Amino acid sequence: MLPVLVVHGGAGHIPPERAKVSIAGVRSATRAGYAVLRRGGSAMDGVVEAVTQLENNPYYNAGCGSVLNVKGEVEMDAIVMDGKTLASGAVSAVRNVANPVQLARLVMEKTSHLCLTAEGANQFARDMGVAEVPAESLITDYARMRWRKNLQPDANPVECQMGKMGTVGAVAVDMEGNIACATSTGGMLNKMEGRVGDTACIGCGGYADNKVGAVSPTGHGEAIMKVVLSRLILFHMEQGQSAEAASDSGLAYMKSRVGGLGGVVTVDPQGRWAARFSSRQMSWAAAQKDTLHYGVAAGEHFTQSIDEPN
Amino acid sequence: MLPVLVVHGGAGHIPPERAKVSIAGVRSATRAGYAVLRRGGSAMDGVVEAVTQLENNPYYNAGCGSVLNVKGEVEMDAIVMDGKTLASGAVSAVRNVANPVQLARLVMEKTSHLCLTAEGANQFARDMGVAEVPAESLITDYARMRWRKNLQPDANPVECQMGKMGTVGAVAVDMEGNIACATSTGGMLNKMEGRVGDTACIGCGGYADNKVGAVSPTGHGEAIMKVVLSRLILFHMEQGQSAEAASDSGLAYMKSRVGGLGGVVTVDPQGRWAARFSSRQMSWAAAQKDTLHYGVAAGEHFTQSIDEPN
C-alpha cells in the first residue's frame, strides 16, 4: 500500500468553470509529489513538493494567488510536520516569499523553534538566503478583484470565501513508513492585518504522527481551530476508527459544535487514505500503487494510471 | 464544588530564594480571580483577572518581567478560551502592551478571528484604544541580566529557562458551570525575533470546553506544541480519566515522546482540579469552597482560609 500521497486544493463551493482548473492542478501536484516518493524520497519531500507546486499555481489560495488582507496585501501561513519525531515548522503572516511551505520546513530544520511570525519569519528567510519576491508577484488580478468586491459595505467575506479555491495541503506515507503533512494558505479573504488562521497552528492546520497517521485540513480556519480538527481526527483513529470514519466524525463535530464547514485529506500508517469534506466541493487527488484517484464533488471518485497525461 | 479557580506561575527549577516570591504572587492572583467568581463573575472574568495580576507582577515571565528575545526586546503571546462556545482569542509576538491577556480577550470578543500577530495585533490594540506602553516599561533588570548572560557563546537558553519562573495561566469553573482558561507569556529566553510558542496556539497553550474541562500549561513550549498538550489531556478526560490522572498521562507522554518537561493546571466541569508537573517545581494555587490551596515543590500541598492574609 506504500507509498501514498493525498493532496487537496481547498474546500468550498467551486463554480463549474473553475472546478476543471482546480482539479487539474491538484492532479499535477499529486503526480509530482508521488514521483518523489516512488524514487525513494521521504514523505516530507513528497508533501513539500506537492504543496510547492500548488503555491506556484495562481489558481490556489497559497503563494502566488493568495487572497488579500483588508489592506490589499498578501500575508501567508504554512506548516509542515514530520510524524517520526513530531518535529514541525510553521510560519505565520509571512510576506514576500514564493514558497512559505519551504520556509516552514527551514524553521523545523534550522531553528530550535516551531513557529516564526511576520517580520521575524521574513528576517529568518533573509538569513537563510531565501529569495525575497516583490509583493506584487504574489497578487493575481482575480485576488485583487475579490478584495475590492469585499471592501463594499454589504460584503460577506466569509460567505464569499467558500466560493474560492482555498488552502492547499498534502499528507503522505513513504516507502519506509514515515508520515508527513504540509499545508499552505493565504488565509481568509479581506482578513485583518496579522490574522493567523489554523494553518500555522499545529494540531489545527495539520498533524502527523507515524504511530497514528496524518491530516491536512481546509475550510473555515477559525472553526478548524476551535475544534483542533487535525488532532481530533487522529484521536478518533487512535480509538480505532478508520481514516475515512474519523475524518467524517471530525468534520461532523465541527459542523454541529461550531457551525464550520471544511474538508481534509487523511492517511494512516498502513497507507489507507481518505479525502472527505462537509463543504459542497473539495478538489483532491491521491496516488497509490501507480493509480491516480481524484474528484471534486461529493461522491466523485475517478481513477486513471499515474502516468496518463493530465 | 463550584466556583473554582486554579493558577500557575510557571514550571521549572525555581531557586529557594525565588520560590517564596513566586508562590506569594500566585496566591494573591488566585485570591483576586476567586473574588471575581465568588461575586458571580464568569469563569472568563476570573481567569483574566488572575492572569492580569501576574502580568503586572515583575517576577513572572509575562507582561512586565517577560524574558527578552535575542535582540533584547519583549514579544509576548497570550490566549483565552471560553468553554461554552469554544470561542477563543490569542495574540502572538505582540509588543508595547501591559496586558496581552486582555488584548487576547478583545480579539475573541471584537473580531471574527482567533489570533492576531505582531504589528497586526498592535494595530488592533490601537484601534481598540488599548494604551501603548513604552517597551522599557516591560523590561526588568533581571530580564536584561539573563538576556546578556545568554548571548555568551557557551550559553544554553533552554536549560537556563528552566531556572526562571515562567509562563502564567489559570483555569476556572464559575457558579453557572461555565469553564475558561487563560495563559500569558514572554516566551523563551533569547528566542529568535518572531518566535511563537505554545501559548498563542489553541489546543497547545490552553483549551477549554464546558463538556470536558480546561487546561493551562507551562514549560518547554516547543514540546507542548509537538504533543498539543492541553487538548491531549482533555482527550484523556473524555476517555474517563480524572483531571489529575489525565494531566499526569499528558505530561508523561510529553517527556517520553519528545523529551519535554512542564506543568499544567486542570479543571473538570464538576470543579475537580489538578496542579501537576514533570519539572522540578511549579508554583500553583487553587481556590475552592473558600479555601486556598498552594504549593511549589513536588508533593507540597498547603491550605489556608481564602481570607487569611498572604
TrEMBL record, chains A, B:
It catalyses: L-asparagine + H2O = L-aspartate + NH4(+); Cleavage of a beta-linked Asp residue from the N-terminus of a polypeptide. GO terms for biological process: L-asparagine catabolic process via L-aspartate; proteolysis. The keyword Transmembrane helix does not apply. The active site is at 167 (nucleophile). Its EC number is 3.4.19.5, 3.5.1.1. Belongs to the Ntn-hydrolase family. This is Isoaspartyl peptidase/L-asparaginase. It comes from Myripristis murdjan. The lineage of its organism: Eukaryota, Metazoa, Chordata, Craniata, Vertebrata. The gene is asrgl1.
